[in-house]
Write a structure and sequence with these properties.
Blueprint (H helix, E strand, L loop, with lengths): L7 E4 L7 H7 L3 E5 L11 H16 L3 E6 L10 E2 L2 E2 L3 H19 L5 E6 L19 H17 L5 E6 L6 H10 L7 E3 L25 H12 L3 E6 L6 H16 L5 E6 L23 H11 L17 E7 L2 E2 L4 E6 L5 E5 L5 E4 L7 E6 L1 E4 L2 E4 L7 E7 L8 E2 L2 E2 L3
Parallel strand pairs: 1-2, 1-10, 2-3, 3-6, 6-7, 8-9, 9-10, 11-20, 11-21
Antiparallel strand pairs: 4-5, 11-12, 11-15, 13-14, 13-16, 16-19, 17-18
Helix pairs in contact: 3-4, 4-5, 7-8
């Protein structure tokens, strides 16, 4: 069953594959690109049939669909080069809008939201370069967004309309686009904050594919929400790494950052479901095998957010997940034992801290209270220290009240 949280989304293949995986992961929203390089107003028959099946499949699984309509949704786009059209932009644009109108008329009641173009703020390459070149001037995008909005609304479709995912980090682009069109013709602004750390605690050494100089995810949300006055949609979010533990940590940190922004963030779509889409960003390998750590971490966050952002897996603001740090003299301690005993169910859980002193416990009973013990075992009415190089700590009657990332946090500082 898909999560009911509006926050947790997933980028999935355009051909409808991956629906079962998306459901197992607990995604509440999926982002599907409309890919049809034919020309003319109507979609190719096989594409239209496939789109119909895909939309019906996700609806049957209780998932919402964001449909991305961009340069891949109509053949013949020559693009822009250094600020000028490389071909007959006006002719392509007219046919593109007519196709969008046709799609909205035929499928609008099964599409929950529309994304207009993808990464229009990318630097424009030279005409004929052959590389990835979705960019266009801000004024041209503002007018395209305005006319796409009209095409969708005139087709009788009421789903949200969001800007194309912006990845330059330059807020001025969408401000200029809106100015050129006489307003921002969208219910949401979409961003793709690749390489950005969740928060300042990740710095100065954030790990592979992250850059502390680019700000924080929460900060990006604040900037775009303030500049546009509409909720932020993170329609692509991911990390280029083969370290699945690093990927898992980034998933948790990112969703915690977005949850902390409350209604300023509408949805956050992880990129992507499988390495078969773009390697190594997937939650599964090319053959569909779940990646260690990352797959389960996303799954747990989706579960913890069931019923609303930040809520616990057991409902009522409680969670089945407990995490935190164990430190001494300001530094995390690796390899210490952390246990939790449930007072209601009598369940017992144990783990050890990682290289940063972080521990994580899952599958706890949300309604229960727990006795949490660090670096000790209970024996003969007292506690015996496990690692004699460090002290121990005991925290009784811990209530698993969910935090902004869906986990409950308890940090410990030990004496030496």
């Amino acid at each position: 069953m898909a999560s009911t949280s509006p926050l947790v989304g997933l980028n999935v293949p355009s051909n409808g594959d991956g629906a079962a995986t998306a459901e197992d992961l607990g995604a509440s929203w999926v982002r599907v690109e409309l890919v049809d390089y034919s020309t003319g107003t109507d979609l190719a028959t096989d594409v239209a049939d496939q789109l119909s099946r895909t939309l019906d499949d996700y609806r049957a699984r209780n998932m919402h669909v964001l449909l991305l309509v961009d340069y891949a949704s109509l053949g013949g786009n020559a693009g822009w080069g250094n600020g000028a059209p490389c071909g007959d932009w006006d002719g392509y644009r007219s046919t593109w809008l007519a196709r969008l109108s046709s799609v909205a008329s035929h499928f609008g009641d099964r599409v929950d939201a529309w994304e207009i173009w993808n990464e229009p703020d990318q630097p424009m390459l030279a005409c004929g370069d052959g590389g990835y070149n979705p960019g266009m001037p801000a004024w041209a995008y503002g007018l395209l967004l305005r006319d796409a909005n009209t095409a969708i609304r005139n087709a009788g479709t009421n789903g949200d309309i969001v800007t194309g995912g912006l990845d330059s980090g330059q807020v001025s682009y969408i401000v200029d686009a809106a100015s050129a069109a006489g307003g921002l013709y969208a219910n949401g602004v979409s961003i793709h904050p690749y390489g950005v750390v969740p928060d300042n605690s990740w710095c100065p050494d954030p790990g592979e594919d992250l850059n502390c100089a680019w700000g924080t995810l929460g900060g990006k949300v604040d900037e775009y929400a303030s500049a546009t006055g509409v909720p932020v949609w993170i329609t692509e979010l991911g990390i280029r790494t083969g370290d699945t533990s690093h990927e898992a940590d980034y998933i948790a940190g990112a969703y915690a950052a977005f949850a902390s922004r409350g209604p300023s963030v509408a949805h956050a779509f992880w990129f992507c479901e499988s390495d078969a889409m773009v390697e190594p960003y997937g939650l599964t390998y090319r053959d569909g095998t779940p990646k260690p750590d990352a797959y389960v971490r996303y799954q747990l966050i989706a579960s913890a957010n069931e019923g609303g952002g930040g809520g616990g897996g057991g409902g009522g603001g409680h969670t089945m997940m407990l995490h935190g740090t164990v430190a001494a003299n300001g530094a995390g301690i690796e390899g210490l034992t952390v246990t939790a005993w449930g007072q209601d169910a009598g369940d017992f859980h144990a783990t050890t801290t990682d290289a940063l002193g972080i521990y994580q416990l899952t599958d706890l009973v949300p309604a229960s209270r727990y006795n949490v013990v660090v670096n000790a075992t209970f024996d003969n009415g007292g506690y015996d220290v496990i690692d004699g190089n460090h002290g121990y700590d005991v925290r009784n009657n811990v209530e698993l009240a969910s935090g902004p990332d869906g986990w409950h946090g308890e940090d410990f500082t030990l004496g030496e």
